[in-house]
Amino acid sequence: MPGAAVSTVTTTTTTTRNRPVRRRTIVVAALAIYLGVTVLFVAALSVALAPAGGGALFGARVAVVELEGPIVDVEELIRDLRAHRDNPLVKAVVIRINSPGGVVGPTQELHAAIMRLRESGKPVVASLGAVAASGGYYVAVAADKIYANPGTLTGSIGVIFQLANLDGLMKKVGVDYVVVKAGRYKDIGNIARAMTPEERRLLQALLDDVHAQFIAAVAAGRKLDQAQVLGFADGRIVSGAQAKTLNMVDALGGLEDALDGAATLAGLPKPPKVIGPRRRLSIMDLLRNQLDLRGWTSFSPGLSVFKTPLYLMD
C-alpha cells in the first residue's frame, strides 16, 4: 500500500538519523567515565605518595632516606639519593642514620653521593637516631646540618682491623696450615701464625692513612681545624649532648626537628610535605616478624667472619 511504504521510509530515515546521535552519546559517556577514573587514580596516587606530609600530589617536598644497620652495600641508597637529586619536586633531603658504621669503601661512596646531592643545590640534613657511630658519623658529616638526640651514641672516629691468631689451637689439635704464596706479604693476617713486626708496621700505616682520611672528612664537613678534631678522634663514643658541646653536631632534636631544619634551608614552610623512605621487604624480614627469628638473623651475612676488611665501626 502507498501509505505503508511512506511510513516505512519515514521510520527508516528517522532510525538512520538517530544512530550518529547514539554513537556520540556513547563516546561522550565513555570519555566521561575515563576522565572520572583518571581523576580518582591521581587522587589515590597523591595520598599514596604523601603519607607523611599529606596534601596534593604536586608541590615542593622534603625527602627522607634511611641508613639502617652496618654499612656494607649502599647501591640502593645511592640510587635513591640520585633519584631525589633529579626530582624537581624534592627541594631538600633528610638522611636518617641508625648505624654503628661499616666497611670503609661503601661508607666513603655514600659520603660522596651526599656531597653530589648538595652540589646540585639541594640541602641535606642528617638526623642521628639511636646509634650513628664511626662510619655512621662519617656519612653524617657530609650533610649541611646534623641533628642528634641527647642520648644518641655517636663519634667513634677510628679504624679497626682485627683477626684471630689460632696458631696455638691448631698445634694442640694437630692441624698443619699450609700456605703457598707469591709475594712477601700476600698472606698478611694469616690466622695460623703470629704476625711479624714488619707486617704489623704495614697494617698500622694502612690504618693510620684511613684514619687521617676520616679526620679530614670530619674537619671539612664540620668546618673545624684538624687539631680540634684530633682532640676527640681517638675512637671514643660520645652522647648527642656531648657531641653538641664538641661541635660534632649542630643541634639536639629528633627527626621532626631535622625535617623542619631541612625545610628552613630549602625555603619551605614548616612542617614540610614529606616523601617518606622507600620500604624494602625481604623474605628474612617476614621470617623475623612471623617466626621471631631476630636472634638468629641479626648477624649480617655481608660481614663474613672469614674476611678481614677495614671497618669504620663501633
Index terms:
single chain, 314 residues, alpha/beta, 2-enoyl-CoA Hydratase, Chain A, domain 1, 8-stranded mixed beta sheet, two-stranded antiparallel ribbon, 11 helices, 10 strands, 48% helix, 15% strand, elongated
Shape annotation: elongated
Return the CATH architecture: Alpha-Beta Complex
> How large is the count of helical segments?
11
Helices and strands, in order, run as HEHEEHEHEEHHHEHEHEHHE
Task: Please report which band the strand proportion falls in: under 5%, 5-15%, 15-25%, 25-35%, 35-45% or over 45%.
Answer: 15-25%
CATH class: Alpha Beta
Tell me the count of domains.
1
The largest β sheet comes out as: 8 strands, mixed
Low-confidence stretches: 47-56, 293-308
Q: CATH homologous superfamily, by name? A: 2-enoyl-CoA Hydratase, Chain A, domain 1
CATH topology assignment: 2-enoyl-CoA Hydratase, Chain A, domain 1
**Strand tally:** 10
Write a structural description.
Helix 2 (75-86) packs parallel to helix 3 (104-119). The chain has a single domain (61-313), classed as 2-enoyl-CoA Hydratase, Chain A, domain 1. It starts with a helix and ends with a strand. The radius of gyration is 31 Å and the shape is elongated. With 314 residues, it is of the alpha/beta class. Mean pLDDT is 83; it is low at 47-56 and 293-308. The chain is built from 11 helices and 10 strands. Strands 1, 2, 4, 5, 6, 7, 8 and 9 form an 8-stranded mixed β-sheet that branches. Strands 3-10 form a two-stranded antiparallel ribbon. Helix 4 (135-140) links the parallel strand 4 and strand 5. The protein has helices spanning 2-49, 75-86, 104-119, 135-140, 167-173, 197-222, 226-230, 240-245, 255-266, 283-291, 294-297, and strands spanning 61-68, 90-99, 101-103, 124-133, 145-148, 153-155, 237-239, 251-252, 274-275, 311-313.
